[in-house]
Design brief:
elongated, six-stranded parallel beta sheet, alpha/beta, Alpha/beta knot
């Protein structure tokens, strides 16, 4: 399963951190690295990668997250954030690394943000899940490569004892189609606009956490299309 996990580093600012990320990946058996609009890949990246130079050499580069999603076969998109939010902030409800490890699936991409600002809000909204590492309130924000190592460790620990999932999982694009269908149904309902927005956000969260199979995707698409025709 580890070979089906892709690490995505969004707009890294320094070549050294790219090297540290590759090294952490190598420590825990991860091989696929994608860089989104990165800084120049100087010798510093390879120096800090130590024995993980091959990960950098084989990495892919895209100019934007949208371009990557168009080209790559992604089923589950996981965003990382150091900001913990309560249940009232629907868009920021997060899971732990342990939860992700327990529910990992084929073609998962884990997004790590910029060293200074992390992932932006609109990028997190694109994700199926938001992952946060529990840390001390005195200093909650971790260095990006340190956070990555914690997450990779949990995945490695779980994957060592777990057989590959055999179910066919709905892809990211299929889940986006389902969300669009749900949005169209909700938009036709007779309810206040703010309640419609919250309903759409809640459905998005449920879909992200539910790990839909392709069979479940097709059944739900049929249900919501039927509802839409009869509203």
């Amino acid at each position: 399963m580890l070979e089906n996990i892709t690490v995505v580093f969004v707009e890294p600012k320094t070549a050294g951190n790219i090297g540290f990320m590759a090294r952490a990946m190598k420590n825990f058996g991860l091989k696929k690295l994608i860089l989104i609009n990165p800084c120049k890949l100087s010798k510093e990246a390879y120096y800090h990668a130590v024995h993980a130079k091959d990960i950098i050499k084989n990495s892919k580069v895209y100019e934007s997250l949208n371009k990557m999603l168009e080209k790559e076969n992604i089923n589950l998109l996981v965003g990382t954030s150091g900001v913990v939010a309560g249940d009232r902030n629907i868009e920021r409800i997060s899971v732990t690394p342990e939860y992700l490890a327990e529910n990992i699936q084929k073609n998962t991409a884990i997004l790590f943000g910029r060293e200074d600002h992390g992932l932006y809000s609109h990028e997190l909204r694109m994700c199926d899940l938001i992952l946060t590492i529990p840390t001390s309130k005195e200093y909650p924000i971790m260095n990006v490569s340190h956070a990555a190592a914690v997450i990779f460790y949990e995945l490695f620990k779980k994957m060592e004892d777990t057989c590959e999932i055999e179910k066919e999982i709905a892809s990211y694009k299929e889940k986006e189609l389902l969300k669009k269908e749900i949005n169209e149904v909700v938009s036709k309902l007779d309810m206040p606009i703010h309640k419609k927005r919250n309903a759409i956000k809640v459905f998005k969260n449920i879909i992200g956490r539910s790990f839909l199979t392709k069979k479940e995707f097709h059944v739900l698409m049929g249900i919501f299309r039927s509802i839409k025709r009869n509203i």
